[in-house]
Fold this sequence. Notes:
mainly alpha; about 130 residues; elongated; 3 helices; about 0% strand
Amino acid sequence: MQHVVIVIHLMLVLSLIGVVLLQRSEGGGLGIGGSGGGGGFMSSRGTTNMLTRTTAILAGLFFVTSLMLSILAASNRKPTSIIPGGQSAPSVPGAPAPLGGGEGGGLLKQLQGAPTTPPATPSGPQVPQSK
């Protein structure tokens, strides 16, 4: 479903860019409604109204597909933790976690229970230290 909405969204983006570039600006746009007489397909006013309506419709559809994509992305999101293991969350929002030891333990308890190894003694020459 999300891939279909993304493809529709991208097609809307490309068509919206094209329609905006076709519109006549102070600089003349890309040549729509040139300085010739009224012998063209549409008059200058008719072309402007059509391009303005098309831009508004494409912008509305762009907004709708953007909302759909954000809703789809939020529904697929799962909360994850960056700390491995089972860490218990505080029961009251904003309250600090218990220091001495809660029922879950947490990261500090895991680190305290880790076996400690003595630091390795260097085998090479040592720098004399002053006392």
